[in-house]
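Q: I'm teaching a short session on how sequence maps to structure, and I want students to see two examples side by side rather than one. Could you give me a first protein with its sequence written out and its structure tokens following it? Keep the formatting plain so it prints cleanly on a handout.
A: Of course. Example one:
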Amino acid sequence: MQKEGDEGVKFGEFMVQLKKGVPHVLLLAGEERYYIDRALEAVLAQLFPDGGQQDSLTKLTGDVDSDQLVGLLETVPFLIPKNVVIVEDTTLFRAAKKSTEKEEAEEAEIADSTKHGKGAKAKSSADKKLERLQKELLAMPDFSYAIFIMGEKPDKRKKLTKTVEKAGLVLEAEPVRAWNINDWLQGKLQSLNKDLDRDAYEYFLNAVSMMQQISLSYLDSEFDKIALFSKARRITKKELIEVFAGLPEVSVFALMDAISAKDAKKALVLLTRQLADGTYFTVLLVLLARHVRQLWQVRLLMADGVRGKALAKPLGLHPFIAEKLGRSAARFSDAQLRQSFLDIADADYMMKTGGGGNELLEHIVIELCA
């Protein structure tokens, strides 16, 4: 149980606290669905160690009437040990939308009428329903559990959110980015009783930094496959390459490394290989644009005195990768990167209008490595 006023806990801390026992009230909230799904699985596994929980689950979605929810929580289960109510995509903890001028005028009119005794009954009725739900959550029956799920951050200013923090446990499922992937990685490796050698770790960080969007579900399943077929405790770079080689945005990072090092010969060989392997022109162009943009952003940050590992957070990259990118950016000038951006835009237009082909990519690579 969290102390009153505490914020929600991250996934690792949530799982630790869950081992002490499942609270009767839970709020699983945030953008990272992977963590929410894993947390829900762990909760149900602990509530129903022998399985068979489906008969005890009541699932609701979206807007839920508070009194209906209270009634469900107070219902004594028949021939089953527990009464578990799951409210998916709940709006109970959502921040109120900013009012328009018209809505504000209407609210002012309601407030004025309330002062004169009009509309007070309707207003107090809604408040009383919410108060009944809050009291229920603070004094839950021993046989009932309420699990609220939402795909966004809850509004911590709401009384109901504070009630859940006081009565139970709140999971903050924040999306994982390249710069904070370590917590997930270490937890996953520990669960598999595996670790990465140095080259494999560096490769993994590079691979993740190239992903437009990190899918923990994908990474989770791929590491499970590696663990299934790898007998050694230590996962090698070769094994990771086999996993990620099929993703164009990952397999192409060797090309970006060659460009960063201004190694024109190696970069052109890798570009030719990518095209021969079937990587689309547009995919390569998008990744080139992203790399140039990152190098330019790094130069701007470094001009403001941001250097080394401090580059990680503003760029959304792992500190190791950000530091490496900082060293690479020093090899380029602002004018060169600006011109490359214009070349990329021209290549995009010419490709779409049939005015050029792979030679446009070669020109960009050569100019970047100049």
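Q: Perfect. Now a second example for contrast.
A: Example two:
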Amino acid sequence: MRRLSRKKALSLVKELDAFPKVSESYVETSASGGTVSLIAFSAMALLAFLEFFVYRDTWMKYEYEVDKDFSSKLKINIDITVAMKCQHVGADILDLAETMITSSGLQYEPTIFELTPQQRMWQRTLAVIQSRLKEEHALQEVLYKTLLKGGPTALPPRENPATEPLNACRIHGQAYVNKVAGNLHITVGKPIHHPQGHAHIAAFVSHDMYNFSHRIDHLSFGEEVPGIISPLDGTEKITFNNNQMFQYFITVVPTKLNTYKISADTHQFSVTERERVINHAAGSHGVSGIFVKYDTSSLMVTVSEQHMPLWQFLVRLCGIVGGIFSTTGMLHGLVGCFFDVVCCRFKLGACRPREEVPQHMNNLNHHQTPPMAAEAAQE
């Protein structure tokens, strides 16, 4: 009984076979079919090889939502060099509601404004990268994927000790502010804080010593991520006017970065620049200095690195193999049919109709008496 049930199950499985088996005696091979088969197999191998590289690659997915975190602090990373001595300039941050004025966390370091050849080469390279990022926005995704491979964007130190007089001031450090609009400004004089606002003492600084030529080596918001280049990194402004105002209007967008190498809460920003000469007689009022006015966006961007699933890769691979096999089969049949029609139409050697029997042979065979019939007649 077991043997019968196994045979019955095996026969049932054979009946379910959806793939027809053709005997080799019924298969006709040809040179054209072999050529098409070679081309089809080569195309399958090539496309499958390229599809494997697509499977290995990743892409960045952008998702947008409302930023509900309004109570946390916003970190500002600053590294700006001004062409004035440190005792003549002061930097502080004032938010929109004037509830917080801070300059703590910022350090003043005397330095030389002129760059060494190595530092100048770094700045030119950074300027080229910035110009390419403005033209090719997809390069930012490359930076996202290779974060840990990229080096920091800070200005490299000087190769030799400084022998020239220290004529500039490097202001660098971090500051934590509220997530509201604010103003980071660097102007003449040290800031003085009082309950009704703040002021800068500039009475002891000569007007001829005003020089707000500056270089922004690094300016970013949120967590510092190595390899990410901010829009203002490497910016250099040179002025020969003592009463010059530089303004940077920044819109900060909170960004959550999730890749296979790092997960960080950083901030992207866009910037608009403006500079003008302060001339009260001509109606251009204001204060000489560097003003970075920032505002936070209400939207938050989540950037995550995506990878093709294995099942999708297998489905695409099956589609490539099956599609090429079916398409080449149909094309081969159509081309063969076309050639048969053309050869028969123009009576070429490829079309050989069967030979016709001459008419007089037909008549002769028709009138000839079969031998068996003649013998029967004689009997």
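Q: What should students look for in example two?
A: Point them to this: Helices lie at 2-15, 31-56, 117-135, 139-145, 310-345, 359-367, 371-378. Also worth mentioning: Residues 310-345 form the longest helix (36 residues).
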